[in-house]
Every structure is written in structure tokens, then in C-alpha cells.
Amino acid sequence: MKVTQASEPDVVVDVVCDVCGMSTRDGEGELRYGTMHASWGTGSRHCGEEYELHLCERCFFGQTAEMKRT
């Protein structure tokens, strides 16, 4: 989840992992995250729906490893 500060334009001040809920900022204050995105098209039960997950490095690779296992 992107945390923004209202301004023109909005400024991203943090990105919180959608799995563990922790900030994705590293020790130097840099944002370190990966995204998973789904956009469902015509014929899908979820046609027109879009999803975007923001994940810290640990959760991103944990989730991709779990997908490969199943």
C-alpha cells in the first residue's frame, strides 16, 4: 500500500507491505519493494477488476516461492 502526502502532485512518503504490514524503507531510507499486478480481461469472472500488491523483499520472494511450490 502506498502512503502519500497530499500535495501537487501527491508525494509517496512510504510503501507498506500488503502481506506483513511493515514499511519497505531500508536502513538508508530508500523504498525497496516489488509489486504484483493483475488485470482481468473479457471472459474472466473478474472482468474489469485490477489488483496491485506492494510487497517487501522478504514477502515478495516468499510469495513467489510458494506459488512455484503449488
Write the layout of secondary structure elements.
Blueprint: E1 2-5, E2 11-15, E3 34-39, E4 50-55, H1 57-69
Antiparallel strand pairs: 1-2, 3-4
- Side-by-side strand order of the widest sheet: 1-2
Q: Helix and strand succession? A: EEEEH
User: What's the helical proportion of residues?
Assistant: 10-25%
Q: What would the average pLDDT be, to the nearest integer?
A: 91
Q: What quaternary form is this?
A: single chain
Beta-strand residue fraction: 25-35%
**Amino- and carboxy-terminal Cα gap:** 26 Å
Shape descriptor reads flat
Give the uncertain stretches in residue-range form: none
Using only C-alpha atoms, the radius of gyration works out to 15 Å
Number of strands: 4
Structural class: alpha+beta
Give a structural overview.
The protein has one helix spanning 57-69; strands spanning 2-5, 11-15, 34-39, 50-55. With 70 residues, it is α+β, with helices and mostly antiparallel strands. Strand 1 and strand 2 (11-15) form a beta hairpin. The longest helix has 13 residues, at 57-69. The chain is flat, with a radius of gyration of 15 Å.
Short description:
By secondary structure, the protein is of the alpha+beta class. The protein has 1 helix and 4 strands, in the order ββββα. The chain is 19% helix and 30% strand.
Features:
70 residues
